[in-house]
Write a structure and sequence with these properties.
Helix content is about 30%, strand content about 30%. It is of the alpha+beta class. It is built from five helices and four strands, in the order ββαββαααα.
Length: about 130
Amino acid sequence: KQWYQRRVRGKFITNRILSRRQMVVDIIHPGKPNLSKDDLKEKLATMYRTTPDVIMPFGFKTDFGGGRSTGFALIYDNVDALQKIEPKYRLQRFLPKKDKTGGRRQRKELKNRKKKVSGKKKTELGSCKRNGK
């Protein structure tokens, strides 16, 4: 069941230099929360006959009162162009999250131990060796 409607506003540009298509996307979702970016990637992929891994949605703002969101989407020709052109922070958003190693207290103690040494010794502190013993 489709509970929202998506529409590409008049701003649709084919950018051959950056090998991508750029557009402003309006999503109408009355009485419902925002649409997730992963769902949006899937829907845009079916609309434009491509795969979700070359689509980069960003900058979505919900209008006051809800029910409608507006943002941008970039559809690259291939994954190589996406990796080369997109900023790293935007690429990180769609990667799985890395678990932090060790507990919070351990990370703080390591940080404070690193403050007391300089140079290569900082990297040695982070390895398995316990304080050079």
